[in-house]
Amino acid sequence: MENITTSTFLPAIFWLIMGMLNLIFILFLRWWFRELNVKLTKIKWLCLIGWWVILLLTICASFTLIGEDELQAGLRFFGFFLIPLLISGFIIFRWIFKKIIIKS
Amino acid sequence: MKLDRRDFLKFGGLLSGTLSLFGFAGAGFLAGKSPTSYTGWGKNNLGKDQFFNRKPFYTNVSVHEKVGDSRRINYIENLFKRNGELFRLMKAKDPEKRWTYEQGVKNLPEPLKKYYQEHPGSLDEFKLMMKMSKEQRKNWEKYRERYALADAWSSAHSTIIHGKSSFPASPDEPPDTWDFKHINPNKLKFKSDKHASELLKKITHSFGATLVGITKVNPDWVYQGYIRGVGKTQFEVPDHWKYAIVFAVPHEWDSMYANPTYGTSYDAYSRLRIIGGKLQAFIRNIGYSSRAHVPPTSYELIMPPLAIDAGLGELGRNSILITPELGANARLAAVTTDIPLQSDKPIKIGIKEFCEKCKICADSCPSGAIEKSDTPQQIVRGYRRWHIDQDKCFRMWNTVATSHPRGCRICLAVCPYSRKNNWIHTIAREVDPRDKTGLFSSLMLGMQKNFFDYPDAEQYLPHPDGDNLTYQNAPDWLLTEEWCNVEKDW
User: What CA–CA distance (Å, rounded) separates B307 from B209?
Assistant: First the structure.
């Protein structure tokens, strides 16, 4: 594992792949919203991507603590932030799909 | 099975999102595990590790709260000097010179008599410490196998500290001659004070120092009553002790987190001694006087206030220096010199305010030596500051399951500032000093106290009072049972 963390080459490749995966994911969301005839304003996109970034950072932070041999702290951190993340995620979901929900 | 374009996009998109979640989890885990994130270690020792930008936090206001007439510390106020002197009196071969508890404080020679008259509890603690020390030696056999590697590792570090092979050599002449010994008569003239300061910092980093700062020597931080190379004497601060180059290194992090039993002070001390000795020689080689002040007891200067003046950090509740890079895991040494230098400024990064709220070290201290009051209450030689009960602290050294009293360091390990240099702690380190409202530190502290597990203070003690717990698990390379044929019965 030390080879991975001390390498000057692997982290760069890793973050390149992470960037590509996230780009693909966002392109997928754009395509999916078109399929569903949902039009997203800039502010809705911003909220959605912001929520996704916070989710990624929360997971990353929890696992950083776990990596530091602070398993309980990592799990508690994740549990603590998971609830507001789920609530805010639900609110954003309702907001984006408001018209579809009303129609159905 | 035929995969159409729609399914492909759907599958690919969802897979990307899922992989991304796992990727960030893995990246976080590795960031936490990475030895390169050990605060202050980095990938080289050429000064890059002093990464915290101090400039926004420099202050021209005195960071020491002077509340009365100040005075220099008498050598007898140093626990090791005091205990050593009392111990020698109790073990004196000449019965005429020997002192026993029954003779009482009034029959002690000065300055011990005055000290113990002013601090009656201190002698009781000494008695208790002597009793605990005997028990520690007696109990060691029970713990010897378990901590054999840790003990050997500690002893290896101590080889350059004690005895004939110690480095740097202890002064055996007065400062007016010793500090100028083997000096190069061809003195190098620096382009400016700034050039001299920058060069000496680079050189000190190149010798292995993690943090380096420079300050003028404040006489209040110079010991009185004893000087190496002379002995007991009242002395004025020598003129050539103009500036001090103060430097810090951390303990090896994994063993430090596994205090009190697996860690040792000697690892950092031995490195500081090597750096101090080399810097002393370097300065004499360019034609100036120098004197190394190195741990554990080869000092004429008190280190924490000197390091504060040199801008390395602030004083914490545990009465030791807290630095932005190393937290409380910073051990100190200095070299005094007459080279004209440019002093650094002290910094204010809100450690005092943080310590007022935190109290984790005080709650975790097995000896109860650390003040629990909200603000510093004690006035020490004219300064209001955090202060610990040295006698209680030293008694604990004699209680934990080590071969001999070699420290506890729990207060270093549990300090929220003694954390790795990974991204989450870096955010906390950078945001907290900039938040004047104190809300951020309260939030961080709330998480620290509720998310992290701290053993109860007494659990660090040996049986039957505690469970020999350490703050974190010991690294595998200090676990005897991992490498040697021992029967694990713990």
Answer: 14
